[in-house]
Amino acid sequence: MRDLLRDERAWAAALILLAALLPAVAPLTDSPAAVPLATRIAILALAASSLNLILGHGGLVSFGHAAYVGLGAYAVGILHAHHLSGDPLLGLVPGTNDPLILLPAAVLAGGVGAAVIGALSLRTSGVGFIMITLAFAQMLFFLFVSLKAYGGDDGLAVRRVAPLLGLNLRDPATMLWLALGVLAAWLVLMDRIARSRFGRVIAGVRQGEGRMAALGVRTYPYKLAAFVIAGMGAALAGALLAIGTRFVSPEMMHWTRSGELMVMVILGGLGTLVGPVLGAAALVGLEDRLAGVTEHWQVVLGPVLVAVALFARGGIVGGLRRLAGWRRRVPVALPAGGPTPRGAAPDA
Amino acid sequence: MPEPVLALRGLVKRFGGLTATDGLTLEVRPGEVHALIGPNGAGKTTAIAQVTGEVAPDAGDVLLLGERVTRLSVAARARRGLARTFQVTRLLDDETAEGNAAMAVQARAGHAFRFLRDAARDPRLTGPAREALARVGLPPARWTIPAAALSHGERKALELAVALAARPRVLVLDEPMAGLGAGESPRMTEVLRGLKGAIPILLVEHDMDAVFALADRVSVLANGRLIATGTPAAIRADPAVRAAYLSEDEAA
What ipTM score was computed for the predicted complex, to two decimals? Predict the structure, then answer.
């Protein structure tokens, strides 16, 4: 039982199962908004978890992750728009409203976008990398603002997405279950990757490029692969966001959105499995609560984030671990000097 | 004479007006422990950096197993069989000792585009990693501890284990004794003695007890130039070497 409590995978599974019960519980407590809110959290948790692969595990501070969320959302929005108008995209690709095509198309768009941007950005490092990923994201943002054919500033409505395997995605409960299912599958993938040979190389990139070079590892291809996987996860989140909210706009790729994703990852716990999920829940939940109290809710949010940064190293997961006295190895954000030998138990 | 496993041929490196490496020629032969010594500021660190590929020489060549590697990157040289330890240890601090050694095994095993299998439970990685850890005398109880939490002496030993786990053709040791305690230096010397003959070693070291206990040949560097190469006994007796170290004593 103690082992189960220590295992982040058990935590993630429990959280997702609890969230899946919401549609049954929400009507009893007269809070119908809880289901769409949980859907939003699940989708943003997916986006944050994808960022965590490069930011948390790889230590690559990509400050433009919302761009890939936007690419996925626009893949859905644009294909859907062509489905409505009937004329094919670029005269070649017919539009569609079938989620079985929309979702893979979004993942492909995010992957291609991340491959191009990553291939160029990963030739830099440090502050240069932060700035160039931000610059590319802003370029995409302004590109979609200026694309009047797809609504420009106003964005696109995504009204009629066909049922997915007979499931009506306009039903809030169905949408929540879809988002949770995708999130669960994604977290399984992230957990496997983190433990794999590939994941070890990515963690090695964070811990010391010099050491990796001395071992004979050329890290660039691995960093690029991680960047592409992260872009695909973000695009999947973007597609779900587009289908769930039935709306796509350039605002989804604004740099402040990228910042929010970073906050979720850092708040939840860099390089942890369940951290980005908790971070997304905390940020979106806080925003939802505070926005109901005052429109200047960010005034309250700011100090909360500063407090977390100062007092809860390792984010929410790090704080929980300390509270519970968990002895599992924390990959990142250890207090200076690292854990005591006594506090470090074997992983098995 | 067998072909040297590592050869430096007329290496020159200038930093502005300072010639840090001045026509350095040196060979490490199969199975030999070749020590590179010299007073502070003699250019040992710069010479090592050109061997491993961190610094590109202005002139001259580096040959690894007969192949010219002068223009190759650090990683490319490592893949060709050059392993090293660092004077100031560079380990993957969040990984366990075993994880650090396993990373070296993994790097040797080819590409790491393997996404799903748990590397910590892969005997093809953990087996050779544990072998290397045992070889440097790190007790098994310490294998599962993050590198950041190990003592300085343990980290020095782990660096050597990481280098050995890569199954190197040539080993470059940059001051393996630096900062070791009175009990630890002799232990490290014993571990290195155990490698003698099996792996050719270029040893840069300040600890003269260790140098004379281990080296088959010793090269002495002063002001970027090689002033002597020979057996430990010959080097001890060499007047030029005495002069170089004496002048350091006077300056101190």
Answer: 0.89
